[in-house]
Amino acid sequence: SDHMENIYGYLMKYTNLVTGWQYRFFVLNNDAGLLEYFVNEQSRHLKPRGTLQLAGAVISPSDEDSHTFTVNAASGEQYKLRATDAKERQHWVSRLQICTQHHTEAIGKNNPPLKSRSFSLASQGSANSPGVQRRPSQNAVSFFSVGHHRLPTGKRVPIMQPDHLVDVREMMSQAEGQQRDLIRSIECLPVSGHLTSLDQDLLMLKATSMATMNCLNDCFHILQLQHASQQKGSLPPGTTISWLEPKISLANHFKNGAAQNFPAEINKPASVREEQSIAEPCQLTREPEEINPDEELEDICDDKEDDLGAVEEQRSVILHLLSQLKLGMDLTRVVLPTFILEKRSLLEMYADFMSHPDLFIAITNGTTPEERMIRFVEYYLTSFHEGRKGAIAKKPYNPIIGETFHCSWRMPKSDVATDADRNFSAHSPSEQVTLSKDLEGQTELDYYTVKFVAEQVSHHPPVSGFYAECVERKMCVNAHVWTKSKFLGMSIGVTMVGEGLLSLLEHGEEYTFSLPCAYARSILTVPWVELGGKVNINCAKTGYSASINFHTKPFYGGKLHRVTGEVKQNTTNTVVCRVQGEWNSVLEFTYSNGETKYVDLTKLSVTRKRVRPLEKQGPFESRRLWQHVTESLRDGDIDKATEHKRALEERQRNEERLRAETETPWCTKYFLKEGDGWVYHKPLWKTVSAAQTQQTDTN
């Protein structure tokens, strides 16, 4: 009772993307089991601006920081709150949890459960939907009295016996069967008419029933551990109580919110049948293919991702997906809705990081180790802006294992900064396009060629390898990236695990580097991207290193997309260059000699990549592989795009199953496994070394 006193005070409440965080005066009414809030303390005598029933609520401290927590009511309403510090958050969370537990137990005592019953959509009639029967006055009691099973009668004992756990397991099995029947009934409804499978109330019912069963399974797991601890006196060493992954397959139940029953094989478009019938990749030639840059043409594709319409139209689908996810859950195996996809593969996105080949080639032109490290940092920080297509957070296609992407860039030698020039290309974007077109008539000596190849070398975990080289300047970069994505509440975090290696063979230098994390924020409103985390660039031979921090926006105040960094000489610990600004706007470089340079990334010239036409590409090259999905997205036909995407994913699953059954290992085409990383099969450092050895032997 000492902990059941009413508490009150100011907390910050998150409203929406536009309004953001606002101070509100909160009151915990323990007697009524309510959390109320007012505009300020002076208006406390007025009607509350908002009220949450705490019976059946879930109080969750956020893992984003030490100040934030959420209150999720049984009605589905949520408050996202922020205390002034970790101590105050703990005070509010503990009091709210005590009040919640008290009133939840009271409901169980005062409202005996109903007999087991199943929910039949047929009995509702065509004129009704769950939304029609919902009452505004519906409270937590009604949420807990639907679908309960009568527990076995008998004297209650302090310690749960094993046979009681068996009874619970049987009841849960019955509930899972009823839940599956419910899902099947919803998905068998027509896609058009008065009551459809896309009805928002039915989608919410489908999602909440799924989430409920997942929570019940988690609770049953905890009961089993508690029973084991009571039997043995304590938990076994090393045992942890943690949330389980969903028992219901998201991939099987979530296909863009639509029914799973796709048209029969004979009614499928020819392109879908083609996607499903491509032969097993390892049965195709896996020999590396030498791409002739002369066959590549300047890319005219310009898919900007600025359309927000689909996000608003598919809001119920997003809610459906979010209801099945948990904080920290790995999203690698989750099938995401098609309308949030970009019109390019992840492998092509890596290629777009190379859209400033003049800055890349200029690295090796530096006359000193210091100059070359600074130039690499300048190139590195300017690569992310073009890698993103528009301000909207959309997701590239997940590459199919064995998928490849090839392209190249031609750069006029006159546009590459020399050893005496620290400036970026002086040409405007319009002038750059003209120069690129004029290259067709120039001789080979007038331009440099940068070639790029990427391959998806693993599916689980998803690992991509990519490699770029400029033979004329004897420089290349090799990298492998494992993308790990996690659900963080109202955002999604992607960790780029892996390492890159830049080799400047003219100088005998190697630079190792990593990549920042990426976050998709505000996924329920207008999703946007930000980068976060610390990355390091090191050159062991010269002793120069760079430390770069991508700063995520704080909850209150602060700027978006901020980046800071410094380049130093490790031996003397001397800082030779500092950088600050925004990675997608303006960067400021300050050098040790006092010189300052500003780079406006929005005005920086971009060189279009060169890609082979679709008819000359192999069946597993990105653009040809995803062409039907891309065309459907361009036409705004989400259902058709989903069907093509599903066909590709289903084929990949079948191939993976066949390899497992026949114990056939996957054979990559361009990259070889070396230790924990992946290396291009014919890197420039091996080619140059072999050529030098051969020349020595000849002499």
UniProtKB/TrEMBL annotation:
Gene3D superfamilies reported for this sequence: 1.10.287.2720, 2.40.160.120, 6.10.140.1150, Pleckstrin-homology domain (PH domain)/Phosphotyrosine-binding domain (PTB)
Biased composition, class Polar residues, residue ranges: 117-137
UniProt keyword Acetylation, yes or no: yes
One term of GO molecular function: sterol binding
Gene Ontology CC, one term: Golgi apparatus
Domain called PH: residue spans: 4-101
Localization per record: Endomembrane system; Endosome; Golgi apparatus
InterPro entries for this protein: OSBP_sf (IPR037239), Oxysterol-bd (IPR000648), Oxysterol-bd_CS (IPR018494), PH-like_dom_sf (IPR011993), PH_domain (IPR001849)
UniProt entry keywords in alphabetical sequence: Acetylation, Endosome, Golgi apparatus, Lipid transport, Lipid-binding, Membrane, Transport
Family classification: Belongs to the OSBP family.
Role summary: Plays a role in regulating ADIPOQ and FABP4 levels in differentiating adipocytes and is also involved in regulation of adipocyte triglyceride storage. Weakly binds 25-hydroxycholesterol. Interacts with OSBPL9 to function as lipid transfer proteins.
Protein name from the UniProt record: Oxysterol-binding protein
Lineage: Eukaryota, Metazoa, Chordata, Craniata, Vertebrata
The encoding gene: Osbpl11
